[in-house]
Amino acid sequence: AQSVAQPEDQVNVAEGNPLTVKCTYSVSGNPYLFWYVQYPNRGLQFLLKYITGDNLVKGSYGFEAEFNKSQTSFHLKKPSALVSDSALYFCAVRFAEGATNKLIFGTGTLLAVQP
Amino acid sequence: EAGVVQSPRYKIIEKKQPVAFWCNPISGHNTLYWYRQNLGQGPELLIRYENEEAVDDSQLPKDRFSAERLKGVDSTLKIQPAELGDSAVYLCASRTGENEQYFGPGTRLTVT
To answer: What's the confidence (pLDDT) of residue A99?
Structure first.
């Protein structure tokens, strides 16, 4: 079955420190992987995606993610966290079979950056 | 470029009442999605449209939920009658080609 796991409900990091938000996936075939961010009372905003090519993907707001096929992971990273990065982060995998073509989301990880 | 527009942003209704949500996707986006996001969860797909055709509605509770996308642009999602468990945020998203999905701000529904 296709699934996405975000093992941490919350990640706390001090401003200026590097951050990592973890994501692992289970999907048949080649995965299409995404990260979205959700600020309070707002919709999801696209950060970055991995389709094919380089394992390190760069996205919006200085975020990047590393695709690791052997570990079936797609962790989100940023070298230096900002207080304004505090939000809810969702990892997603695209599932396409027959008439179905949808994103399967993880449960989300709340990132809290302390000043 | 305007993003995905949804209205209303918030809706409070009593159980057994009907409710409708409206979505205007990004211009030129042929694919439109409706998702439901329960508190503390990621969004879950309800229905996907390709132009005016509902190509995947397998997760739409058809006894009380309905949707339409007349003319392949705007879409409405309706619940009749609403139940307490329908309280959630209803998100609309659109996409063109194989690109990423763009989400609207959502409608937060509270059923009392």
So the answer is: 67
